[in-house]
Amino acid sequence: MEKAVNIKNEALKNGLIWGIVNIVLFLVTWYVAPSLMSSYWYAGISLLIGLAFAIFFCIDMRKKVGGYWTFGEALWPIFVTFVMAMGLVFVFNILFGKYIDTSYPEQMKEMVMAKSEATMKSFGLSDEETAKAMAKTSENLEQQFSPSFSQAVMAFGISAIMYFIGAVIFALIFKRNNPNPFANQTTDQFGVN
């Protein structure tokens, strides 16, 4: 007889692994090639790694619960995995900028501002439009890299909602209904002699 798997613990463990991998990727990039942090390549690679982890963990958890799970059974473990990974990285980034490398927020703001200005100029925006957009970008970056407590809570909540939507999509994709729901039941459960 197979040992029962605690899917809640699996989801937490998977989220922890995913979060740690994201933190390691962040640290390696920050200390080896910080200019990549504001590039589309870094964002693209991070997205691909995230999708690979999401797919792997969804398939792995489904396999551990017997190969079948309904949408409802899949949703919460997937969401817990996603939000655990996101939460770990979210908290780490705030702590990293405040206590570990205090130059991180300012350097990131400068890199993003330079990239944003170049992008706006390539779109042919006037100097006035560019100045307005840059002021708004600067304000957003200040909230992102040096948030107040209420801003951090709001940002975490918005991120959690976005990850919940992602979890709904993944639960729809990775649900698998058992074609024979009575396979594990014995005849005495049905009153057959």
UniProtKB/TrEMBL annotation:
UniProt keywords, alphabetically: Membrane, Transmembrane, Transmembrane helix
Pfam families named in the record: DUF4199
Superkingdom per UniProt: Bacteria
Stored InterPro entries: DUF4199 (IPR025250)
Residue ranges of the TM segments: 12-33, 39-59, 71-96, 152-174
Record bears the keyword Transmembrane helix: yes
Annotated protein name in UniProt: DUF4199 domain-containing protein
Organism (species): Pedobacter ureilyticus
